[in-house]
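Example for reference:
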Amino acid sequence: QLLPKKIEAFDGRRAVAVSAGAYHSLALAADGAVWSWGRGGSGKLGHGDQQDQLLPKKIEALAGQRAVAVSAGEAHSIARTADGSVWSWGVGGRGRLGHGDEQDQLLPKKVEALAGRRVVAVSVGERHNLALTADGAVWSWGFGFYGQLGHGDTQDQPLPKEIVAFAGRHVVAVSAGEIDSFAITADGSLWSWGNGGFGELGHGDAQNQLLPKKIEALAG
């Protein structure tokens, strides 16, 4: 489509959020339902199969859960529900689903490692994830080769792990790129970490950062 074209299949429903992955898309409706379409391999559409979907299709497995946010990665998907829970599905390689293994999930599965912590925001990169909890802490999991998890190493994390470098700071927003990560703290500072090969971290160099580093060029 060379020009924007309205998705007619969504007529009559009020969309409140969307997220585009590499080959699939997610939409959140005002009633809390999640819809998906596109390439269905490895279950990233959440319908219990691996079929492609040419039209938006409601994820019935999330019925009874009021979703308030969605985020799509390269080949996996995440939804946050009103109770602060996180659900993931799709490709599980490199631990990106947060269930402690590398199994694909054809249906949304609750990330139990975050149970009891109220998640207020999620952001999905290519193969890693960031979650922000109500206490201002940041958690990350999945592919970590470029340091994009912020734990000071290049290890994968199959379970959500708190980024201790932010201890004592209150984070208010997070965003995951392909292989880099960003966070904003309550004082308005911007922090970045992960792959820096093209200067995308904003530190004036092309170095990777294994820990969150404040972007000094935005100080003040």
